[in-house]
Amino acid sequence: MASGKNKYDLTIIGSGPGGYVAAIRAAQLGLSTAVVEKAPKPGGTCLHWGCIPTKALLQSAEVYESALKGERFGVKASDVTLDMARVQKFKSKNVTVNARGVEFLLKKNGVTLLAGRGKLAGAGRVEVTPAKDSPYAIE
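Given the sequence above, the corresponding structure tokens read:
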């Protein structure tokens, strides 16, 4: 994530599904736009800890269950096992690919991604507190 200038037409706190879509649309409409994100990669809770990883784990569970019950469909599978390390790798790959996609879309549309925790700091101002640096304000 980059830190750039300190003045934007629009600053969005959080790069989840609402934040990154709003930022991209604002940039497409010609606004100088920044997104403040506390996580190492954009995408928000849904992408990193919620919806996307859950769906990947559920897909693995469904494939496993289908393999176990395949005989009723005329498919015999023996020695079906669940490899949790590979399940986790599948889940992590899904998250990583999607996060890179969000990052690409932000960059492609000229949105500045700022690393840190954002909070409102008065009219037209956002305070950004990076993980290891001093807070700074953007307008």
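The chain has four helices and six strands. Try to locate this feature in the token string yourself.
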